[in-house]
Amino acid sequence: MKFKIGGLKEPGNLDKERVVIQILEDGNVGKLMVATTTQQAEDRVSSKINNPYWIPDQDVVKGDLIIIYTKDGKKNSRKNEDGSSSYFFYIGMEQPLYTESNETAVVFDISNWTFARRVE
N or C, where is the chain less crowded by C-beta within 10 Å? Predict the structure, then answer.
């Protein structure tokens, strides 16, 4: 799925802290995961990730927005004036995730994943 991070908005403010993802092609965002990390340089982030959030399944079309709030809330959506939709998801944290100036969000396309089965 093609997407672009539209920004990390109002970091440090639990009520407004959010990651905005712009959808660049039709698909399902249930293949995306957002997490926190630290920025190491202008174009490099740490490989240590925290607070992974696997975005629930939601069909989207090019031009839609995915907004992921740090705070608690209930998934919802709205139509935008341009005909696109905005989909709102909530991680459910009690504290903001991005309180330090070098903390940032990273979004992964995890469309090719697997898991290890427990063998006893």
Answer: C
- Whether 118 maps to a domain, the answer reads no
Residue numbers of the domain that contains 88: 3-109
Please check whether residue 13 lies inside any domain of the structure: yes
Give residue-wise pLDDT tens across range 28-74: 999 999 999 999 988 899 999 999 999 999 999 999 999 999 999 99
**Concatenated DSSP letters for 11-46?**
TT-TTT-EEEEEE-SSEEGGGEEEEEEEEEETTEE-
pTM of the shown model = 0.91
CB 84 within 8 A of CB 47: no
| Residue 119 forms part of a structural domain | no
pLDDT tens digits for range 80-94: 999 999 999 999 999
